[in-house]
Design brief:
heterotrimer, A alpha+beta (190), B alpha+beta (266), C alpha+beta (248), A: 190 residues, alpha+beta, Glutamine Phosphoribosylpyrophosphate, subunit 1, domain 1, 2 domains, three-stranded antiparallel sheet, elongated, B: 266 residues, six-stranded antiparallel sheet, globular, Proteasome_suB-type (chain A), Ntn_hydrolases_N (chain A), Proteasome_sua/b (chain A), Proteasome endopeptidase complex (chain A)
Amino acid sequence: MAGGVCIADCQYWETYLGMHCRLHELRNRERISVSAASKYLSNLVYSYKGMGLSMGTMICGWDKTGPAVFYVDSDGTRLKGDLFSVGSGSTFAYGVLDQGYHWDLSDEEAQELGRRSIYAAGHRDAFSGNTCNLYHVKEDGWKFIGNYDISKMHYEGPGNVPGAPGGGYGYDLRVEGRSSANPPPVAATA
Amino acid sequence: MDHFPTNWGRPRNDAFDAYGTYPIHQRPQNGPKDAFSAGVQRTQQPIVTGTSVIAIKYKDGIMMAADNLASYGSLARFKDVQRLHPVGDNTVIGAGGDMSDFQYIQTLLNELDIEEYTAQDGHSLGPAEIHEYLSQVMYARRSKINPLWNSLLVGGVKNGTRFLAYVDLLGTTYSASTLATGYGAHIAQPLLRTAVEGFEDVLTEEQALKIIENSMKVLFYRDARSLNKYQVATITKDGVNISESKHLETSWSFAEGIRGYGAQTQ
Amino acid sequence: MTQPVQQAFNPYTENGGTILAIAGADFSVIAGDTRQSEGYSIQTRYAPKVFRLTDKATLAVNGFAADGNMFVKKVRQRLEWYRHAHAKDMPIRAIARLIQTMLYARRFFPYYVYNILGGIEEDGTGAVYSFDPVGSYEREACRAAGAAQSLVQPFLDNQIYFKNQTPAPGTSFPKHLPLFTVLPLVIDSFTSATERHIEVGDGLEIYVVLAKNSDSLQGLQAIGGIQEVTANTDGERTFVIRRDLKKD
């Protein structure tokens, strides 16, 4: 599943979808809805069903109906929901996502949850990692929040960003006060 | 107007696979139908085969050789087959692999030759053009998963330049001053390389012939699908010459002295 | 429907060899060895894998040689059509997208070829684009592909991206390396790959593409056996450097 071909499938068909969303905009003088865009893709991949396409995608946006997230995969499955994770590391991300999610997250909380979830996947899944890109979609369009190094997040944290608790996501939590170089507070005072 | 709804494009209800049946939902086939498609036979393995072809560059041109055997599996079936084929005035092709596919290639090249001649435009096909043509044909056939099961050498001289190149059933091509197909690539090629590399411009026809003869002999000693009867093609600025069949002088008396080689029982 | 026929024929083979490309600030280096092999047999000691496409783009192909040659042929054909239609060379980022669509068009019977495209972007920066056989691509600073990818890429990561290195206190690593640093890295990559990989060797062809008025021109002429392949000296310029590699 983590073979090279799924990268090409995603890259090619998402570019293709982008072109058709732009065409929709030119033809109809309005942006395509999230639902329609995702359906475009799901119908497309369905017409190739059984031929070996391999993609898992999430189409996220804001239209007349408000915010929406659609899951579309190469089997042709298309689901609307408010929480998805996709790919070989998705189970690790879901673990973090599910325990941290509630419907009225603030912007910063939501960004931090996304960052922390991908960190978990990047850390535990052999086929995920290196860095994480974070985007935030709101009523006025998408915004690139940042690119974060997974190893850096583990040891030092994502840096001084809104929503981050400060400190690393992984390392300190496990070794704090567990070595003589870094003695626990009790041992230090004694 | 096509009155069959299943052929109108994406189907509506009748042909629509509502339950996403695994693995492939059927899309209507609108192309031309071949009633005999099941009867079409593709070359899935070679039947009557030729073994190695070898060739070298030398001072005056190209020298190429192949034996006269066409095998049927391990049976030495046809022992007077010519596997060197002249094309035009400057080129020879030598073929290993399936001999029926080679005969088809010969007809293709003859048609091409006639077409070129009939044009009477002052142009003629040289070895480079014939090699390019053959490689396109071979690659096109492999891409249809219906290959012409051959390894071919193309050699020739035109406008003072020597040309020697290879093409096979996959469409793979390459060129070098010594080439050998099949078993020859393993047995003869090292001998040819040591004898020829660096001496392409000084080797005389006699020396080249010696090298070729020696390689054919070594091949005959070790290649079970080879024959001691072979032909040599020389292509020089003066044109193509394909020799009469030659016989290899071999000696097997050494076998007597070697344990496990001759007739000893112990 | 035709029923599936049992097929013994395998339309692919692997022809060995290795290619790499490195982008500098205003130049790009694209290199490949010239050995072509199948299994343990060397088919030829000279079969080029690097091809000049335009004055500012050069393509290296590696994998199944027959597919590679056919692919280069088709890319060149499309670039010629573009020249006829628009009276200019296609920019490299457009060539990269063209290559993606051409590769993906064969998604279900792929060209078994790894492509690396090097050259000069319209803004004058050095560029390297690398592709997988079905067309996913990325712009990078350096990439190795082919038989010795696993030997060469880690070396490049270390020497170009300075991976696993810590800068001396108070200093930082350069973002782009100069040509006189890059060329020895390329040559060393191939001599090392030749030592340790049986499918690499015989000869090395290095294409250097320089941006308009590039400073890297100084010192380039001093390199032995260098040969210019561009006719015009007022635009982007391409040079070839050939070196022998061990033949064993």
